[in-house]
Amino acid sequence: MAMLDDFRTKEFLDQITILNEISGSKNPEALPELVDLLKNPIGDTSIDYMVVNALNAVLSCCEEEVIGGLTDDHEGYNILCIRVAGEYALKNAVPTLMSMAEAEKDPDRLMEIITSLARIGDPAALPVFRSFLDHDDPFIQSACIEALGSLLDEESIPRFKAMIEDSEAPDRFEVCDLTSWKAVDTLAGFRTEDTVGFLVEKLHHKNPMVRRIITDALVSVGPMCAPLLLDAFERGNADSRTLNANVLGFIGDRSGADGLVAAFDRGLAEDENVRYAVYEALGRIGTMKGIICLVDGLAETDELLLMAVIGGLEKHVNPGMISTLTKLLAGGDDQAGRLSKAIIASRATAIFDALYENQDVADALMDALSRSKDPEIIEEFRSILAGIGGERSEADLARLPKVASGTRQALAADDSRSMCAMHRAILTDLGFVPFVAANGEEAYELIEEGQEFDVIITDMNMPVMDGMELVVKIRNTQGMENIPIIMVTTESEVSQQDLASKTGVTAFITKPFKPDELKGKITEVTGG
Amino acid sequence: MDVELAKPFIKAAVDVLSTMAQIKPAVGRPYIKKNNVAAGDVSGMVGITGKQNGSVSLSFSKSCAVSIVKNMLGDDISDIMQDVKDAVGELTNMISGQARAGLAEKGLVFEGSTPTVVMGDGHTISHIARTPIMAIPFTTPDGDFTIEFCFE
Lengths: 528, 152
Prior knowledge:
The structure holds two protein chains of two kinds. By secondary structure, chain A is mainly α. Chain A is built from 30 helices and five strands.
């Protein structure tokens, strides 16, 4: 090609201009000279890099030359041809790439060949991807899993399932490896009853990160999981029912709420943890049946369960529910006391606002609010009262106590809003200034901001950063090596607690618990 | 896709460290972590934008970072803190550049931000995306470091 004559002796700017022009025109005539420039580089990094780009552009129009280049002796040109074959999805390159993959020993080159074949996406290459599912290099394994997943290779489904099964082995479950992640995502991608059903069964995987990844995968699959989750709910024990109900809540599909209500009516939520999870899920989904079930839940006597019920209803305030609540609260009995306390502790400001119209009820709520020792809660309701306006609310505002902050600080991390509210109430009762966080990361941010705590309470399973990771981080933070940490868990499996003990948890408390039990534990670990 | 993106960074890290600091790191088994903080004594981080957005971080233990600086600068160390900071920033930039050049050859064009360096014993930095993070541990005779990837 005339343009490239005496290229090596040309000025830098001319060289750039020529290579740019070739990249644009993709003229195949430039190929021999460009290959020569690649194999015998000029030595100027920017020009040599532009040669590769120009060559890539020209090769995109020269399929035969690319296929020829796959077996070229020159390492750089060879790799470029492998990459170009993938980038432009050259199907005719598949047979050569397949035989190259079979013979390749170097993992880096093998990875190049596999990713190129994956990008071409020809089902003819399926046997190659399958054959490397057990390769030593986890990147090659994962690239093959991804490729088989995008080709929806049903034959590999049992292999993917086995990878997840094997990852629960006693010597492996403490780490979530790359292949478990890819296998979960790929199985979810098939979106069949078989693959999604398998993931539902594995929702209680021993590794908390795998569990989280499965939860996310099921939520992304969406409503089609609902019948499978409900079926597992029917068959499962209390732990798995709790997880199933949580996922149904995150998916937020109506069928999930209807199924949970039906299961509830058949007595499948006798266990308090399960009932708690069902109430939270129903609150998230918010169907008519679900709200009716939550209204029935107002008869619960357990403080925590009542907070879950109130937390759920808070998102769907309607006149019928308010009139029921008004009747219950006006009763003035023990249950009325529990309910007003739950409304205040779970900061149900929308419910409070709607109930405030009735003076008797408002008085009961104000009594509960005045008894709260939590300055943040009092502030929040103070602004609600200010917004309501009028003589009565002004008088109530004047009634609110000025709370002196305690000097001891405590931190609680839990992704459940009602659990956070409960911790907050317990901690203020004990005279702590409470800090709450929705996950481990938020909790750790508070620590990084320099807040000092006398005790930390954390849930085990939380999104973003779970309890175990939080504990590890805290223990590695200077000055926090010995701070008491209480972990709240519903896990009945000993393995989970073992894992958590190793990270440095001071004490455990298993849900469900009475507030006094946690108070006792906090007092015990903080030495009064 | 994620795996294809991560691999060139590992290769680049090994290349750059062996060329610039004569340290040949051994690659450990990658794992997934769900929290989005990277922990170390010195970290370099770059944001990556293109077809997918994400971030890549390299977190070095103190001993590893110091030995890299010594190998890069010899006895010519004037202010160890400043030199470690510069070196980690420079290495992160080179690794990001080399890896992105490799990806560009496959038609995967990404832009890299200027690296940010964070120092402090056991500090943490956050990745931007909310997806699982792939962590690759490396060991060297002078201490460990970890590369983390997070792509949306």
